[in-house]
Amino acid sequence: MLLKTLREQVLEANLELVRRGLVLYTFGNASGIDRGEELVAIKPSGVPYEELTAEQIVISDLAGNIVDGNLRPSSDLATHLELYRHFANIGGVAHTHSEFATAWAQAEQPIPCFGTTHADYFHGPVPVTERLTASEIAGDYELETGAAICRRFAELDPDAIPAVLVAGHAPFCWGPSVAEAAHNAVILEYVARMACHTLSIHAETRPLPRALHDKHFLRKHGRNAYYGQPKETK
Fold first, then answer.
1. Which of 58, 94, 117, 121 could form an SS bridge with 181, CB 3.0 to 4.6 Å?
2. Which phi and psi (to 5°) does residue 103 adopt?
3. What 8-state DSSP symbol labels residue 31?
4. List 25, 61, 157, 227, catalytic entry
């Protein structure tokens, strides 16, 4: 089986989205990339998660040509490919229609950082794209969705903010691996829900002070991070 390990990792990430309650029926997908081979493994379109196997994961090149697999890939393949082409450090993408993150996307509002839980994972508000134009929707819709995400990150660091809300649609998340992309999707839903609760308690809540936001993000990420245990070196 071509890219057996990657296929198994992509299967596990898709199932993790289900286990964590981020996916209803077939509303979502996850993919991973082998940068050396320049091949992407992604969930097939419309296949129920309870029936999904590693063998059914579809392999595509970065141009969208199917290299291996007998099923249609996710209809969001072109969006995933656009992210892989533009965000050089990512190894996986996860797309869901999770309830609270999608509500923010439908409201076309970025998710502010109100607390340190958000700051641990996202070095800034989670941004929202601009609406697609009628011609973009009528054209190559999924590719244009990816292009809208990339435009939104023209002056943002996708490694520091590994998530976006597509206006009127839903969130996309990414990470160094497909497992981390799924993990970030879980965290995004958690902070989206907490942000809603925070505003329901006090509508004028202010974002976290930048010094505290930076402290929490940088103690987990970057050269001087000190959270957790050091990685073993061989």
1. 94
2. -60, -40
3. E
4. 227
Confidence class of residue 14 from pLDDT cuts 50, 70 and 90? very high
**Confidence tier at 233 by pLDDT (50, 70, 90):** low
Mean pLDDT for the chain overall: 95
pLDDT at 54 over 60: yes
**Active site annotation includes 227:** yes
Domains of the chain: residue spans and CATH: 4-218 (3.40.225.10)
Q: CB 225: neighbour CB atoms within 10 A?
A: 12
In the annotation, is 157 catalytic? Answer: no
CA R_g for the chain: 18
SS (H, E, C) 40-109: EEECECCCCHHHCCHHHCEEEECCCCEEECCCCECCCHHHHHHHHHHCCCCCEEEEECCHHHHHHHHHCC
Q: What is the pTM of this model?
A: 0.94
Name the active-site residue from 34, 120, 141, 159: 120
Residue 229 in tokens:
């245990």
- From 74, 85, 117, 96, select the one nearest 173 (Cα to Cα): 96
Say yes or no to pLDDT of 145 above 60: yes
Nearest to 185 by CA among 7, 6, 8, 27: 27
